[in-house]
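== Polypeptide entry ==
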Amino acid sequence: MDGTDEEDGMDVFRFCPLSFAEVRPRGRQARPMPRSGHRLVCDGSDLYLFGGFCPRLSPQHASQMDADPVWAESRPLFKELWRFNMAAREWRRLPCEASLPRELASSAACMRGGVVFLFGGSGFPFGSACSNRVFRYEARAGGEVRELQTSGARPRPMYGQAVLLVGPHLYAVGGTTGFEFSSDVHRLDLRAGRWEEVYVSTGAAPEEPSGRYRHELALHGERLFLIGGGTGDRACSLKSVHAFHLRERRWERLATHEDDAWGFPSSRRYHGFAQLGAGAYVVGGFDRGQILGDAWRLDLGSLRWSVLPSCSLRQSVYFHATAVTPAGCLYSFGGVKALEGDCTRSGGLCRAWLCVPSLEEMCREAVRHYARRCPLFSRDRLASCGLPPTVLAPIFS
């Protein structure tokens, strides 16, 4: 990412991968309130932010929300779905609140082919009302969020589950009722709308993972990798990871290898996560009373950890939400930034490039950087200079 992109008075574009920088929305348009326990997914052009929780807003934010009838009904949860256009840097609250589920905290979410999938989650107080329902939102068409009608061996209503799309199936692993923790594996055939019980943990096999919530999933070959998570008072170690073999339907426990200089990442739950190719990225989180801000990469082929010292979050947080674009740009929004105080939630958005993208992508970044600072760089003028529509369209849409 261009590390000077957001700093006033420093106008030279520089591309700096593996470094988080603040993303400042354009203008004074509405934007999401500080929150935690929300979910973030994305495609190549937009972020989608769902739900979340904030026990206490600042006086300034509270005054902005006082006239919001949806907030008056759902507080301290946010019954909202927001879209952030990454090129234009503009937030928009989507007008679909009436069709959103009531379980708005620690849901699971994923996105593919322009469709956002939402699963599970909790109302407030946490665990008082949990969900095993699946919703879908057609991002390109807009409109309402629709519940999928499903049958078969449905998972128990829970929150803090993890989901991943594998072919025509939505896999769901683990979660909690608020009292019990699971590591069961279910999958939903999206063609038939039918749930299947793939593996029920009994504790009899030593390779089974312990029950947990707020873990994450990665796919490599025929294995689903279970990364982190924990219970209300325990975080899972990252010195080993559990992998579920999709074809053989069995768990394995695999030792990971430490970074030569930095060792292993600390155990953690409530962390940010993204997968890019064979790399699984863990950012921030919480363990033993400490809010974390470090960033690590696990190579899913060699199972070796690498610390990313330049890619630490700008502010240590947990219960934040992350998503990575197909081109490799990781976004992080919100989270818990302090254990005590009146305003413990963040409403900040930041991003870091996890790789060096294509030259066209870097060109688009540079054009956006300068176009925002100089009104002479109009779309027509840049087009007359020979810049192709593929570069200009996302910036001036």
Observations:
- The mean pLDDT is 93.
